[in-house]
Structure of Histidine kinase/HSP90-like ATPase domain-containing protein:
Amino acid sequence: MTLPEPTLLPAPGQRNPLRPITGILLERILGRCIAVFSIVFGAQGIPFALMQQGVLKQPLGWLVVGTLFGAFAAVILTGFSGRFLVTVAPFVPIIYLVALTTWPLGVADPSVVQPTVPWLWYVANLVLATAVVAFSTWVSAMYVVLIPTVLFVVRLTPSGGGATVEHALLDSAYVAILGAVVLVVVLMLRRAAADVDQAQDAAVVRYGDAVRAHAIEVERLQVDSIVHDGVLTALLSAGKAETPKARRLAAVMAGVSMARLISAAETPTGLLKEVSLAKVRERLDRARGHLDPDARLSAEGEIGSLSVPAEVAQTLADAAVQALVNSCQHAGDSASRWITVAADGDQAVVIVGDDGAGFDPSVSSERLGVRVSILERVRTSGGLAEIVSAPGRGTVVTLRWRAATGAQEHPDSIPA
């Protein structure tokens, strides 16, 4: 009877364990962008690094070149592969900061004014972009300020080219502005990705809540239908049974109610498979034998080979049996009945009709079983239920379920 608990979400109060897909994708894109930048700007700095080796102390000059460009190569490999970039990338800004700070000590003659800017200036923007990806926002912001400041000081020294304050300020400002732009862009993208991931998690949580609410509603309808169709109806029929026919009808309804209770308690819903529509006809044939053996039943050949999920077959059969019980109780002793079970293409159709007293379906207080046991039950299973009746003109209950889609729109005109 109890429906399985949906496994899509954790228990209430726990954070959804889904991975932040958008954030992960953004980090992969940033890693590949840094790899491309390393190729382009790293290649741009190689000629300047080679030309200035003559004024540097050796092997210190070649050690700096080999270490820094080796770190660039590692960033290229990890950036394109998408693995270990967060481990490798921090080495680039650390090595660069050490090399830039010790630049005056690495020049062979610190007193000689160098004719060009240190080659480290040509890869400064690449290093800042790598720092933005490698470090947190605050560390990256501090680095974007620190590197241009150190570069400004180095440019004023003879080993850094002996630039004027204005020239050194322009060189360092160029690096700072580009670094700040990269920092702001990456920060905005990361926040947008985090917002998307948060919205996705919230949507999944709401969907999970809707799944649980639907499961609870389905179980409530099952309980309502069993209570009304079985227990309540059987008790009411037994209390009003004054004729042998009425007593026999009450006994049959009690037996069916007990069988349904046992079946609901023992049958795991998730393990049911599809069954032939002929099984629905067989059950209705048995119910017809107990309730009204004179009722006409459609030929088995009208069913064909159509199959429906076992839960749907149970729903169609229960609703049809309830319609037949309602007819036996309210249509009158002289009423004749018919039952049709057929396949209309990919659609299962079950019809229970009579030419008896009928009723006004627009009156909601009439026939509680019509609303709970027939209409809502079939709607919950994704089918259509239509009841056509009028006082003195009989009642026709039509149940439909389309096997191809398993769900259909529910017309608002069905009487409640």
The mean pLDDT is 80. The first helix runs from residue 21 to 51. The chain has two domains: 21-203, 275-416.
